[in-house]
Model the fold of this input.
Amino acid sequence: MNEKKMHYIFVYGTLKKGQPNYHIMTDAKNGKTVFKGTGRTIEKYPLVIAQKANIPFLMNVPGTGHHISGEIYSVDDQMLQFLDEFESCPDMYQRTIKRIEILEWGGKDDLPEERTAANTIECFVYSTTSYQPEWLNLPHLDCYDSYGTHGLCYVTHLDR
Ligand code: PCA
Done:
């Protein structure tokens, strides 16, 4: 059979399980998604909640902020393209490759060939370089939750 090419993607924001845009990942109309495990960025980044709609942004400023926790998925070309459009990539976010430390992996039989001895894997991540400089002064999170004690619940596209 012709195996479809799959891509690893690390999500840290509204696309995670239990977050407002998770349904995008699981809607088969958008393409194929397989949950692989959990991880954390090797580098530190500032993760902030910004704009009127309380949008999480991982600012592409390595070395500042925290190691960011998130989930690793494997997605097909169709889902990747759908997510690019959904995340307004490349205008709002840019999709780049970042190295992720694997914390938990779905099945032991299924460990990825791409994994290194140090238990890291390269994944696509939506981060941004087109941020406002004052965002750097916002609180830096390490694990995003739209429903967290910060009270800055994400405003979905429909409600903007
Ligand atoms: N969606 C993407 C980037 C930020 C967001 O809300 C994600 O969850 O990784």
Notes: The longest strand covers residues 33-45. The pocket of pyroglutamic acid is lined by residues 11-16, 56, 87, 93, 126 (CB under 6 Å). Residues 6-155 form a domain with the Hypothetical upf0131 protein ytfp fold (CATH 3.10.490.10). The two ends are 44 Å apart (CA to CA).
